[in-house]
């Protein structure tokens, strides 16, 4: 016993020494060796930027105490009027000496000129990375308005597209965004945006490009409230109101969001088609005029909670609920240009109720900053009920009336596991997912005492492997994705359907510098027919029209080649070439037994090819940003048209321009214009279109209130006109469905740090704009 006591007293000084806190020392000076006072100093974990300790340095000399945990550390120093600085901490050298702070303001003859930090651009692994300055996130009204100011991205109506490629999918902080996450994302929280034009095999066949969004690290506990309301007055008038609440305390954070949409839509549709078979002496024409009025109400509720287990792992839970009510009044008049068929008028009333429940739990862990494991489980329930009444009136016949109710219920369960391993310049991504969907539909005809029920079950399994390797300035990517789908349907002409296919891809890029780089990419995609396209069950529309499918449809195989050259002076050229075999499209043909009845069915087009070239250029001046895009597209599909000629389609040209002018420090004016010539692609012909929109964005009330006033499509080509021509059928679609009108939106942001001292510190670390 005496020996143990003696050993304890001998080791006691060592124990006390091990518990002594470490001290980081240093002093702050500017570029002219003047002391910098009132700075905020925050010590955090390097892996996830979670805060360990902090202090406000009243003088220019500081001493910060902390307990060593053995993990890599990062020190952030910021002061008003100076650029923030990150310093990696070496535990063996805790005396940092003099730290030089670079000013963000230039003093010339006692006149202060504020300098706005520009977007920082660099190229990494063939991807364009843009670091978003704070002022840009503050001024943006929503996510689309922020992304539209990033070179390489264009705003098409309300959708963001990658120039020369198309509509991308999004990845938020390295994971797939869940329901409602992107809509509720605050532009002020975005730190970095990366554009990937070579989708890895991790993503399915619909991914033509990826936009990676990284948000800022949250160092302090906080309470945030965000209010948003947006009103649009067009023929698709709607009002969107939302409230978002965020709360963070220690390792636990909560998010609650609610939105309400009111959408009254009113538009006209003109639809006609003609069948001409000379050898069989068949000629059939029909023209339908439809007046549509819909009024929809949509409630959305999102709740999410996140627990930060440690610096490298977290678990989060999300629940999403959506409820939609739609009332529709559809008036249609059909003229048959045939003496044997009388004209027909129909009136349809629809009352639809839609509910969706979605729950998702996710676990994410990063090992030593190199390996990452993400596991996710999701469950979804969709309940869709519709009551419809149809009244038909035909010349020389009595009126008929039909009322029926449709009910759809979908249940979906999904599992996914993703793992990433990083070597020196080599990233290996692999993962598997499994999903199971149960669909049950009931249709009851009240007037005929008839009911139809069907049940189907679909299972899908996916596995992928992607290798991404950077060797100096050269980078290559190889991926393979396999998908297996099993369908089982009751009360159907096909009982079982199995499909299995691969999606290989390969790409390479070479980076000379951030202004000059080259990229080449190839991808093979197999698209299976949907259940509706295969299903031969008749779905009633009216006495003369019904839908059917084709169980003999073949999968569509697409070969896509893309190359992109980025040149100095912000000039880039993108070239896309695609070769499709067995493309699936919908066609109106005569019924074999009764030529007077027209049937919408699905057929395979043997092959089609398309070439697309896009030239993009952007330039940023002191208060002016210009983004220009010009495209050329040519279809090489040989299609037998109505006149039985086989020919190539004419090329089409399109132009896009965005002008962004800073009228005042916090007032921005955007002018967007687009023009597309007549376009022919495979079986489709579309007339020329053009539009011009104006947006005024204002930041008010101490940068908390964002106001958007926009004129949408003030100049436009009028009605939409499109023809579909194939073999003996000509279909014509006309519509006044356009977006000409105005938009007024407001967003108010309220931030409050929970701790009094941290609230004071937040005022110190505000950066000069």
UniProtKB/TrEMBL annotation:
The entry's keywords: Cell outer membrane, Membrane
Pfam families associated with the record: OMP_b-brl_3
Name of the protein: Outer membrane protein beta-barrel domain-containing protein
Residue ranges constituting the Outer membrane protein beta-barrel domain according to the UniProt record: 367-748
InterPro entries for this protein: Beta-barrel_TonB_sf (IPR036942), OMP_b-brl_3 (IPR041700)
Major localisation: membrane
Subcellular location: Cell outer membrane
CC terms in the record's Gene Ontology section: cell outer membrane
